[in-house]
Amino acid sequence: MIWRSGELSHRILLYDRWNLLVEKQGNSAENAPKGMDSQLENLRSLSCHAQEVAQDMESIVYSLQNSQSVFLGIEQNENFVKNKIGEGFDVKYHRFVIEALDNRQALIIYIEGIVDVKAIGELLLSPLMQRNKMPQAVGAAEKPGIISMLSSAGISIATVKESQNWTETCDAIMEGNCVLFVDQCDTALLLSVRQQEGRAVEEPATESEARGPRDGFTEKIQTNTALIRSRIKDHGLRFEEFKIGERTKTLVVLAYIERLVSKSILNEVRTRLNRIKVDGILGSSYIEELIEDSPYSIFPQIDHTERPDKASAAILEGRIVLMVDTTPFALIIPTVFWNFLQSAGDYYERYFIGTFLRWIRFIALFTSASVSSFYIMTTSFHQEMIPTKLALQIAAGRADVPFPAVLEVLLMEILFEIIREAGLRLPKAIGQSVTFVGSIIIGQAAVQADLVGPALIIVVAVAAICNFAIPSYSLANAVRLIRFPLLLVTAAFGIFGYLVGLTAMVLHLLSLRSFGESFWTPLIPFEKSGMKDVFMRAPMWRMLTRPGLSHSEDNASRQARGQKPEPPDNG
Amino acid sequence: MKKIAAVVLIIINAMLLPGCWDMREINDLGMVMAVGIDKDVAANLYIVTVQIAKPASGDGDKKSEHIWVVSAEGKTIFDAVRNLALLSSKRIMWAHNNLIIIGESVARDSIIPVIDYFTHNPEVRMETFVVAAKGDAKQYLSSTSGLEEIPGLGFRDMYRYEFLTGKSVQSNVLRVARRYFSDDRQIAIAAIDFEKGVIKPGAEHPESEAKMIKLAGAAVFNDDKLVGWLTPEQTRGLAWLRNEAKAAVVTVRAPGNENRSVSVETHNVKAKIETEVHEGIPAVTIILSGDAHIDEEDSATNLSMEEFKEIIDQLVEAEIAAEIKLTLDKVQKEYKSDVLDFGRTIHAQHKEEWNKIRDQWPALFPKVPVKIVVNIEIRSSTTLQQPMKDLKRGIGQ
């Protein structure tokens, strides 16, 4: 229609021109064009209307189709489904005859690959097609009761649902159900025979710990919920279901313990999830981006994990774990800044080393963000800050380097990022040689060729290694990025720029919120009981209360007092 | 959107327009390691000589020079320093300077310009060491130090361990400036001289080429002018009073044997100066107390340890008192310069009397009677009870 009306208007234009020419020449041909003109005008308005009408009709048909209930006739039903979800090679339509019901026609529809074909054969087809296996009651049933009779007495599949709604029925087929239609019945039977090939439970690739459980989440949400169920057997454990994505219809599950969770945060999460109207959800990061508090911030505000033990610990603290089908990464809500620097291993090792490692991470975080800027600041602006002998060594290393230090740092930082990116997606065997070429050959050769100073190679390497020491991958990525603006502002203003840059970064972090709560709890606002898990990892017998912001207020106590182990009193 | 664009523009301009404003690369700097100041009195010109480190990368460069010494003249010190830029390919930076050598010519003339320039230069650290050179400062800057490649750095470290002998004084820019600005004490600066006869391996005439700087006592100033030198021995008397001799070695004759000696090492020596003013006439008592250990004994005695300690104790006390007396004679009677802080102590202890005698103090100081009380306790002996020789003899039998 659009093409046609375009052509039409083109013709009208041509005609107008011709009309003008005619008017100039004289009045002889006046009558005929005038009649054509009005006719064309009518035609144009008609075509516009036709377009609108067609659109309206389409939408009416669509809504009619969706509201329509299952037909009586089996042919009609088959055609409707074929029209709706197509005749793909994996969509199977299977007609058969139920002997017990006077050879009545029946139809099953399923999608191969996501259903258990063996179960369909053994538990559905075999009882229906063999008269002797069918109870007498089924044959005697009244017409409207046939379907419910079948579901209760005929078929040996546990999860069965009746439906008359087409949308529900078609969704069920897409989700891996087998749908049964019986001739002259206006109800479909949805049989859950879902079986999908998935990865086995493996050790988490991104968060492995020396001492701790070895299982990790998989892409299958049922496996993931089972992993949490196997850890928490509290009656209050809830898995709240959401379907998000207009087309992917992805299953999203909120896991929490009802009596521990903060109601206000739970409601906020529900509101934000219900707000999402997108085509598809292909990973938990989609959800993360759609529900976080400050979308313009470079820093992550929601932690994610691949470890069921970490997720369970969060649930026990009264937080909410958001799991998304088809992704092994679960989100933890709400998250405070400190969570990004805690690791599951802290709780599996003795608390001394747990505390020590936490401090190591703080140092690594700060170093990774600022060591290259610090290098620029000292070598290009404030040489008096460097001890004399070190200053002479750096100067000696840089003696023949032709670039200013900033350019040198930028060059190496970017080169390092390229090497890292290059090695990331290559097959493992090649990836290693990339790392080798990057680190040894380029690093060494650049120094020998006097393109960069040796001190700088150390600085860049230290920044990179420190970045790897940050337990949260998303925070590490944010730090990777923040280095560059800090570097530039330091290169422009020296120590002034360095401090202003750092201050701006801290101020920005302070301004962040996680689901309405301060990102720096319990340090800011200060809460003494929460501090036991921030700068130190308190021993288990001292962790008496749950961390402040997340849990519901009447359930702060986590465990009984006085559990510090002591030798038996022999005295 | 407009707002964001404006903010981005401001940030970009703020970063680009200053053009890395006071950025200077570390390898574009000539880092001064030591500076010497002389004066051509006849022409009224200051001669500033700097020792600049030449950063050399490790291997292969061992034979090349590690320093570059250059001088420039000017009507003032600042003028001369600026004239250095005519000769230097790198920007001269003072922040890593370790040593300021004041040439004798400047010291005899006036050290005010030196104090003035180096306290006003923001790059100079206030704890930079200040020494007075015997002769021209210039010649010391091109001499080498035994262990370090950069003499300036070597000298700094030498100075750091000065307390082991107590035969020099601690003087840095801050101390000199503070002493200069107070009217109740005078300046004493560590002195340097050449040590002769150190063998330099590989040189053609090892003995003649050997030239090394050593700490050689102190230079005593009266107001801003050099009035005389103290030998290292005389300087130690000063160090005792200033509590700067922290681990000094005192050697006395061994009891019963004129040719042998005993060395003790002192610890925790505290000098207390007590003053009194009677009708405008001040008197000073110096009370020195501390511990000592016997470190080396060279002779055999028949005495028991207790008796031996007793005798050594008395000898050490007498020796220290004599050292102080020696310094007093020189400083008080000859140089008439109150580097001993007597005036300051009176000022602190008797404020009102001090205000009365303040003006006559330079005249009064040489006449102040001084009483010296030394009270050293020998705690223990770090050597065996018997000297090595006796021990060997005993084993041999």
Compile the SSE list and pairings:
The complex is a heterodimer of chains A (about 575) and B (about 400).
Chain A: H1 2-25, H2 31-67, H3 74-85, E1 91-98, E2 104-111, H4 117-129, H5 136-140, H6 146-154, E3 160-163, H7 166-174, E4 177-182, E5 188-192, H8 221-229, E6 237-244, E7 250-257, H9 263-275, H10 284-291, E8 303-305, H11 308-316, E9 320-324, E10 330-333, H12 345-348, H13 351-381, H14 388-398, H15 405-424, H16 428-448, H17 454-468, H18 473-493, H19 495-511, E11 513-514, E12 517-518
Antiparallel strand pairs in A: 1-2, 2-4, 3-5, 4-5, 6-7, 7-9, 8-10, 9-10, 11-12
Helix pairs in contact in A: 1-2, 13-17, 13-18, 15-16, 15-17, 18-19
Chain B: H1 2-16, E1 29-40, E2 45-53, E3 67-74, H2 77-84, E4 91-93, E5 99-102, H3 104-109, H4 112-120, E6 129-133, H5 138-141, H6 151-160, H7 173-181, E7 188-195, H8 206-209, E8 212-222, E9 225-230, H9 232-241, E10 249-254, E11 257-278, E12 281-297, H10 305-335, H11 342-349, H12 351-357, H13 361-364, E13 370-381, H14 388-396
Helix pairs in contact in B: 9-10, 11-12
Give structural notes.
The complex is a heterodimer of chains A (571) and B (397). With 571 residues, chain A is of the alpha+beta class. Chain A folds into four domains: 66 residues; 119 residues, no CATH class; 115 residues, no CATH class; 171 residues, no CATH class. Chain A contains 19 helices and twelve strands. A five-stranded antiparallel β-sheet of chain A has the order 1-2-4-5-3, with helices on both faces. Chain A starts with a helix and ends in a 53-residue tail after the last strand. The N terminus of chain A is likely disordered. With 397 residues, chain B is α/β, with parallel strands linked by helices. Chain B has two domains: 205 residues, no CATH class; 159 residues, GMP Synthetase, Chain A, domain 3, CATH 3.30.300.210. In chain B, the strands form two sheets. In chain B, strands 1, 2, 3, 4, 5, 6, 7, 8 and 9 form a nine-stranded mixed β-sheet that branches. The longest helix of chain B has 31 residues. The radius of gyration of chain B is 27 Å and the shape is globular. The model of chain B has no long low-confidence stretch (mean pLDDT 83). The interface between A and B is medium-sized, with 27 and 28 residues.
